[in-house]
């Protein structure tokens, strides 16, 4: 794959889990206690922030945000004989991928990032956390990954945290998802509530982040806006993404679909 580290291991084979049709919302009585994280993970995230791979703010806040991904994913893929294969899109300093991998010992993940410094850091982090048997790191652009026959349609789920505007996330993620797979995206505070996808567009613009009609051309269907301490939008890959997507490197951002 052009722009990909040739030494990166091939992703594991795609399982065929039985997926629920819709995620469930968290219960109001959920245990609010924060889980303890491995000290080594905290050290790694501190180093990621110092290197500029992680945004500002306390590491604890970043961890809580990543834990929200864990909670959403565990409801999308309940425990079973075939845990999912997930891809962390634009993994950067390793969030949410490293936390999902640590919290979910059965899951398999690929951490994808375009920058060599970041993927070198991620590879070392995976080694230090002892996750090498089920977490791999790949360097390359998301558009190139979506055109790679070894990766296209391979994943049960794609996770996106601060990767880009919705149109870019959708076009880069959809080619990587198998039919029935899920895209889980971190949303900014105050995102509009989910609405029936077949309703006309809201003139106020409240539904423009994930408009159903443009997403259909990628095979994606918007599902729910889930609140799990933070907001996460879920979208389902209802059918395979057409071969014309993703477009060439950089085009999704320069000429977004919506």
What's the SSE blueprint?
Elements: H1 39-50, H2 59-76, E1 85-89, H3 97-103, E2 108-113, H4 116-128, E3 135-139, H5 142-147, E4 155-160, H6 166-173, E5 177-187, H7 212-216, E6 220-228, E7 230-237, H8 251-254
Parallel strand pairs: 1-2, 1-4, 2-3, 4-5
Antiparallel strand pairs: 5-7, 6-7
Shape field: globular
Helix count?
Answer: 8
- H/E order of the elements? HHEHEHEHEHEHEEH
Rg computed from alpha carbons, rounded to a whole number of angstroms: 17 Å
Rounded to the nearest angstrom, the distance between the terminal CA atoms is 28 Å
Largest sheet: 7 strands, mixed
User: What does the average pLDDT come to?
Assistant: 86
Strand order of the largest sheet: 3-2-1-4-5-7-6
The helix-and-strand class reads: alpha/beta
Spans of 5+ residues with little confidence (pLDDT < 50)? 1-9, 12-32, 193-206
- Which oligomeric form is depicted? single chain
Q: Count the E strands.
A: 7
Strand content: 15-25%
What portion of residues is helical? 25-40%
Task: Give a short overview.
The chain is an alpha/beta fold and 258 residues long. The chain has helices spanning 39-50, 59-76, 97-103, 116-128, 142-147, 166-173, 212-216, 251-254; strands at residues 85-89, 108-113, 135-139, 155-160, 177-187, 220-228, 230-237.
Question: Can you offer a commentary on this structure?
Answer:
The protein contains 8 helices and 7 strands, in the order ααβαβαβαβαβαββα. Helices cover 28% and strands 19% of the residues. Strands 3-2-1-4-5-7-6 form a 7-stranded mixed sheet, with helices on both faces. By secondary structure, the chain is of the alpha/beta class. The two termini are 28 Å apart. It has helices at 39-50, 59-76, 97-103, 116-128, 142-147, 166-173, 212-216, 251-254, and strands spanning 85-89, 108-113, 135-139, 155-160, 177-187, 220-228, 230-237. The chain is globular, with a radius of gyration of 17 Å.
